[in-house]
Write a structure and sequence with these properties.
Layout: E1 2-10, E2 19-27, E3 30-35, E4 47-50, E5 55-58, E6 60-65, H1 75-80, H2 84-100, E7 103-108, H3 115-124, E8 132-135, E9 139-142, E10 151-154, H4 157-169, E11 174-178, H5 197-209, E12 213-218, H6 221-230, E13 234-237, H7 243-252, E14 255-257, H8 260-273, H9 277-300, H10 321-329, H11 334-340, H12 343-349, E15 366-369, E16 383-388, E17 391-392
Parallel strand pairs: 1-4, 1-5, 6-7, 7-8, 9-10, 11-12, 12-13, 13-14
Antiparallel strand pairs: 1-2, 2-3, 5-15, 15-16, 16-17
Helix pairs in contact: 4-5, 5-6, 6-7, 8-9, 10-11
Length: 402
């Protein structure tokens, strides 16, 4: 079946300026053609959808999510005490909600077990509704390190390599390593190195030998430098950067995923929401530094993808707009920020041959919006229609577990 979408205000995800009155032809899962100036008469037998000048963008990416976490005041503690069956159902419910918001690809950066890997397989098989999910299974952390509930603790290079291989054998799409501290426990330091170059490199070599990527959680400058030296493909958070590290990131073409909205939420809402005072104080001190460094990295040409740390403290899974607004406040144009959530997300995850832009041959992941997101980013919350691999997504929420 051929679907023809005409009258589109097209923002194709490549970073090019938008084009009005475009026509898209979709055959099965893929985009067959993109034509400007109306595109001529639709072929006989095609189903025609006139979007009447609405914005059409590629399916959006969130490159840092935790589908098992509840975005509450104590997400790690809540997850640790939650029965696994309930965690699985809630993760599926959250995934479906993200898809309805136009988020068609996500990277799950740590779970308490391998159930998100199984959910990803269920989505691929058409058994569950949701975005395309790339999952790491459990992250790898130090003994008594950051986010233990999401991770397998290790000591030494051999243990790190073995833990990476266990995730890969379970079906992990990539490997995640916790190099520094983070938010989560009283007295935890964001810049404290917990796993060094040797452990990260051992995990990276296991991942790369299997044709998989590795991303590294690192807030502090030394942890970021260690991740670069160890061969990380991307770095999460990347809060504290000196000029030499920014230059290294640019020259190595290593992606960073700053997750500004996570720290912003804790800094601005943490005390009133009942989070521990020291966590809110740490976030309030870190946030302006993160914003300044995101600006410096963007201006220097460091590759940046969009990720929110969805599921963490006060950080809802369906909210991409906050992160996009913060990227704009940190110096990106609206078009550049949207490109971080489309093409750059696909490049970061290694799926840009399939998705991330609206071009012939790509999978037809499309979002049709009520409004122009380049004029008003909140238009991304006014979703008219979503297509994932050419299939229309039902936007009315199915019943499920909240």
């Amino acid at each position: 079946m051929r679907l023809v979408i005409r009258g589109a205000y097209l923002i194709d995800g490549t970073g090019a300026d938008p084009v009005r009155d475009c026509t898209l032809a979709i055959v099965g899962e893929r985009i067959e053609a993109v034509q400007a100036a109306g595109g001529g008469r639709p072929p006989a037998g095609a189903r025609v959808l006139d979007v009447e000048g609405r914005a059409v963008i590629p399916g959006l990416f969130n490159c840092h999510v935790h589908l098992q976490m509840d975005a509450g005041r104590s997400p790690l503690t809540a997850l640790a005490g939650e029965p696994s069956g309930l965690s699985r159902l809630r993760a599926a419910h959250r995934a479906a909600a993200m898809l309805r918001r136009g988020i068609t690809t996500v990277r799950d950066c740590g779970a308490k077990d391998w159930q998100v890997i199984h959910l990803a397989a269920a989505v691929r098989a058409g058994v569950a509704e949701g975005p395309r999910i790339l999952a790491c299974g459990r992250a790898i952390c130090a003994k008594d390190g950051h986010a233990l509930v999401l991770s397998e603790p290790v000591a030494g290079e051999a243990a790190a390599a073995a833990a990476a291989r266990r995730q890969l054998q379970a079906g992990a799409d990539f490997i995640k390593v916790m190099a520094t501290g983070g938010f989560g426990r009283e007295g935890e330091r964001l810049d404290r190195v917990e796993l060094g170059v040797g452990e990260i490199r051992a995990a990276a070599e296991a991942a790369h030998a299997a044709g998989r990527r590795i991303t590294v959680h690192a807030y502090g400058n030394q942890g970021i430098r260690d991740a670069i030296a160890a061969g990380a493909d991307s770095i999460e958070h990347a809060a504290f950067l000196d000029e030499e590290t920014i230059d290294l990131l640019r020259r190595r073409r290593t992606f960073i995923v700053p997750t500004l909205s996570n720290t912003y939420r804790v800094a601005t809402q943490g005390v009133t929401a009942g989070l521990p005072e020291d966590m809110a104080t740490t976030a309030a001190a870190a946030f302006p530094v993160m914003m300044a460094n995101a600006r410096r990295a963007h201006q220097a040409g460091v590759r940046m993808a969009l990720g929110t740390d969805a599921g963490s403290w006060l950080n809802e899974h369906t909210d991409l707009v906050t992160e996009l607004r913060l990227r704009v406040e940190a110096g990106a144009t609206s078009l550049a920020a949207l490109t971080m959530a489309t093409l750059h997300g696909a490049q970061c995850l290694g799926v840009d041959d399939l998705v991330g832009t609206i071009e012939p041959g790509k999978l037809a992941d499309l979002v049709i919006l009520e409004g122009d997101p380049l004029e008003d980013l909140s238009a991304l919350e006014r979703v008219h229609a979503v297509y994932r691999a050419g299939q229309a997504v039902r936007l009315d929420p199915a019943s499920g577990v909240p």
